[in-house]
Design goal:
Blueprint lengths: L1 H48 L20 H10 L7 E6 L8 E7 L2 E8 L4 E7 L4 H11 L3 H30 L2 H5 L7 H27 L5 H10 L19 H5 L36 H10 L7 E3 L7 E6 L13 E6 L5 E6 L5 H14 L4 H28 L19 H13 L1 H16 L5 H7 L1
Antiparallel strand pairs: 1-2, 1-5, 2-3, 3-4, 5-6, 6-7, 7-8
Helix pairs in contact: 1-3, 1-4, 1-11, 4-6, 4-12, 4-13, 6-10, 6-11, 12-13
Length: 468
């Protein structure tokens, strides 16, 4: 009796294993192509960010003894467009002494990034904003050039990847039996070798992949835009604006982000901007100083901005001067120096001085995880991201190879086992369903394929043979 009981328990455990494997198989089949795309474009973005720069700011110049006034540099940038309607909207300080300054120049509804030699005040290059190789990879990485639908697909793939990791860790634990064998497996031959490679790489990168998925999802349209950001935004009341501002008060994201380009720290995107023209503020630019580019640049250095930072000019009658520096914008190698300063365009007073320490816990998590995600923490994080992206590609390809090798010739998808012979195991199904429900895009995709399977595939023998 004891022997029969043991055999029954073993058979039940094996059937549960097959049930989880089936979940893992379908989640991987959907997510793998997207993960390969994300890893490849992520690698390309790291390459371009560290060679040409996000805004072509890595163009080199010959250092000289004297730097020309910012007003002359700005005029050179404006004149480069050869248009009377062109106006300077942003100044990005040089990354180092041998690199160009960059000015954003608006001309009608178009924007251009003009590289200027700070020593000669001569325009070096004029490029349409957000249209270089870096931004192309960024757009593919964000929504595959498909807009809202593409954003949803990426969000769904990232959400399902979390389910993929949970099920994969369970499967590999069952196969290995110990943490040591999970991380340092014995490499066999044939399909076993691919399985060992797949499981070991997956185990090593799982926690970082989870971190990257969460930081990416926090910027996605549903989980990020509709859920997480809503309760994580920085409180506008910190600088005197009512906690519930009027609807016509623009947010940091609407005013300072340009299209898909993210220039505002995540935690500030939904926070309303302060406005010029009030009696608020203190400890700003001296009252006897004119508020010019030179004055604001000098003041930025006085209050602690070093190296590359961004200076946004006021927009409209209530607009403010905005000084920003953060690792997300490739300004520095540490998220802990994040700083956003708003200055009244009339009085020169500081209306807000927001630093990393002012963020809530999730804002701090996002600042650090995005810096790691983008490889902006120095050379070691660049190397780390290269290895990580290659590992993601390797684990996806190895999974696809395993499927192809175990797939009978002439068969369809050949999913593991037959769902009609598998038990419904609440012990794993419930955590997976809870995870899916926590990420709406994942549950939408699961429901879509369940309906597709139930209403169409199950009723057509040829499709049932292929997909099952």
């Amino acid at each position: 009796m004891a022997h029969q009981s043991t055999n029954h328990a073993q058979r039940s455990a094996n059937r549960r294993y097959l049930a989880v494997w089936r979940w893992h198989f379908y989640a991987g089949l959907f997510s793998a192509p997207f993960l390969i795309l994300l890893a490849a474009t992520g690698l390309a973005m790291i390459l371009f960010a560290n060679t040409i720069g996000r805004d072509n700011e890595r163009t080199h110049v010959t250092p000289q003894a004297v730097v020309q006034p910012l007003s002359l540099q700005a005029e050179a940038a404006r004149s480069a467009l050869k248009s009377d309607t062109a106006s300077v909207a942003q100044y990005i300080a040089p990354r180092s002494e041998d690199m160009v300054a960059v000015f954003r120049v608006n001309n009608g509804d178009k924007a251009f990034m003009v590289s200027v030699d700070p020593y000669t005040a001569q325009a070096v290059a004029v490029n349409p904003r957000n249209q270089n190789a870096y931004h192309l990879m960024d757009d593919i990485h964000g929504d595959m050039l498909l807009g809202t639908f593409g954003d949803f697909l990426i969000e769904a793939a990232a959400s399902l990847t979390i389910l993929l990791m949970v099920s994969g860790i369970y499967l590999w634990w069952r196969k290995s039996g110990s943490l040591k064998k999970m991380l340092l497996p014995e490499i066999g031959s044939g399909r076993n070798a691919w399985r060992s490679l797949h499981g070991a790489i997956g185990g090593w990168i799982s926690l970082i992949l989870l971190l990257f998925c969460l930081s990416g999802l926090a910027w996605a349209g549903i989980w990020g835009g509709k859920a997480v950001q809503a309760w994580s935004q920085f409180p506008a009341g910190k600088w005197g604006i009512a906690p519930n501002p009027e609807s016509d008060v623009v947010t940091h994201g609407r005013l300072l982000n340009d299209g898909k380009t993210k220039e505002v720290p995540w935690v500030l995107e939904l926070t309303p901007m302060p406005q010029s023209g009030s009696t608020l503020g203190e400890n700003g630019v001296a009252a006897d100083q004119p508020l010019t580019l030179e004055t604001l640049d000098r003041y930025a250095r006085e209050i602690g901005f070093k190296g590359r930072y961004q200076l946004n000019l006021p927009k409209g009658e209530t607009g403010v001067w905005t000084l920003t520096q953060d690792s997300m914008s490739y300004d520095a190698n540490s998220p802990f120096i994040d700083r956003t300063v708003h200055i009244d365009q009339y009085s020169g007073k500081i209306l807000a001085d927001i630093r990393y320490d002012d963020y809530n816990w999730f804002g701090k998590f996002m600042a650090v995880s995005i810096a790691l995600h983008m490889g902006t923490l120095g050379w070691w994080s660049i190397a780390f991201n290269v290895v990580f992206c290659l590992s993601v590609i390797a684990v996806c390809i190895s999974g696809l190879v395993m499927w192809w090798k175990r797939r009978p010739q002439g068969a369809g998808l050949a999913a593991p086992a037959d769902k009609n012979d598998l038990p419904f195991w609440w012990g794993m199904a419930l955590p997976l369903l809870v995870l899916a429900a926590a990420f709406p895009a994942a549950i939408m995709v699961i429901l879509f394929f369940w309906l597709l399977d139930t209403l169409i595939v199950a009723r057509i023998p040829a499709l049932q043979k292929w997909f099952h």
